[in-house]
Amino acid sequence: MTSCMRKEMLEAPAAIARQADRQNARFAELGARMRHTDPHALITVARGSSDHASAYLAYLTMLRLGRLSVSLPMSLVTLYDAPLEIQGTVAVAVSQSGRSPDVVEPIKRFRAGHAQTVALVNDANSPLAQAAEWTLPLEAGPEYAVAATKSYITSLVAGARLVANWADDATLLQGLDALPQAVERGLRADWSLAVETLKNVDRIMVVGRGLTLPVAMEAALKCKEATAIQAEAFSGAEIKHGPMALIDEGYPLLIFATRGPAQASLLKLAEEMRGRGAKVLLAAPNDVNERDLTLPVAPVPELDPIVAVSAFYPMVEELARARGFDPDQPKHLNKVTMTR
Question: Would you say 111 and 117 are in contact if contact means Cβ atoms under 8 Å apart?
């Protein structure tokens, strides 16, 4: 029987196309507004998978626009009532449900403080959508599986769409137009080796760097919630700053090495970890001969992380079942987490 999690992840290409069809004009309008108002910094407001999508948005914002970006520790607003100076900034909240108070309240505060406020949210009728000045629906459609998949993918896409329109970046905009086909290829990638390698492990490091670090963070979260594997995400630049002490014979590592400036260092790390006896799963495009798992590529390298997580999701759903878990019913978890 097909799980709800698998059914929903396979809907991602259609959801991306739907987001483009229904929201492109609104993103273009917001992009023009951002170029006019020229905010000096980006603040992201999110938790869980949405925070990982926000980290990708932050990387792209700094890379393409040169604006500093920070992830808001929401408790500064909801618990400490910190006197934050927010004028001249843009605050972007990312959420599937738009109902958690610790996401909604900062956006209310920032809007009252004359920051620009944007909600990238799947539920266009949610409290978050009502709180923000600009609401851009993810257009993922209903998502019932506790483990978010298509809403995470559409959150990544919405972040890239925001940056592309803000920067008026024709290359990135054209890449987004062709992205549904690339994500479809990602969803069909054969990662059965990873299932076989990981079905009996109890721990794993998931490694990325730069634009792939948010995908490593998301993959580690999904390993925890869907498969009960103790997973930790690290930047490839940080492995030697302490985590190296944990790696012994047979220690499993999943390394995302997409195209771009970070790839060479990740390939070198994979080689070094194999030399130490680690059980390395190197995910890379098909021009990397030493890869273990193939990553289809996106129309432009900056979008490769979206295709990479699309390849990962079917594997982790299959891995959950191989380990005897129901991927639709992670232990102790609910679809909407109401934190403050």
Answer: yes
Amino acid at 265: S
In the block, tokens 């029987």 appear at 1
Alpha-carbon gap, residue 92 to 71, rounded angstroms: 10
Residue 226 and residue 131 in one domain: no
Residue 252 CB neighbours (<10 A): 20
What residues act catalytically?
335
- C-alpha–C-alpha distance, residues 77 and 112, integer Å: 13
Give yes or no: residues 128 and 190 share one domain. Answer: no
Three-class SS string for the chain?
A: CCCHHHHHHCCHHHHHHHHHHHHHHHHHHHHHHHHHHCCCEEEEECCHHHHHHHHHHHHHHHHHHCCEEEECCCHHHHCCCCCCCCCCEEEEEEECCCCCHHHHHHHHHHHHCCCEEEEEECCCCCHHHHHCCEEEECCCCCCCCCCCCHHHHHHHHHHHHHHHHHHCCHHHHHHHHCHHHHHHHHHCCCCHHHHHHHCCCCEEEEEECHHHHHHHHHHHHHHHHHHCCEEEEEECCCCCCCHHHHCCCCCEEEEECCCCCCHHHHHHHHHHHHHCCCEEEEEECCCCCCCCEECCCCCCHHHHHHHHHHHHHHHHHHHHHHCCCCCCCCCCCCCCCCCC
**Cα separation, 96 vs 334, whole angstroms:** 13
11 and 50 both lie in a single domain: yes
Q: Global pTM?
A: 0.95
Contacts of residue 324, defined as CB under 8 A and 6 or more positions apart, other chains included, come to none
pLDDT at 245: 62
pLDDT tens string 13-51? 999 999 999 999 999 999 999 999 999 999 999 999 999
Walk across the sheet containing 230-235 and list its strands.
230-235, 203-208, 252-256, 279-284, 293-294
The answer to whether residue 163 sits within a structural domain is yes
Q: Which domain holds residue 56?
A: 4-177
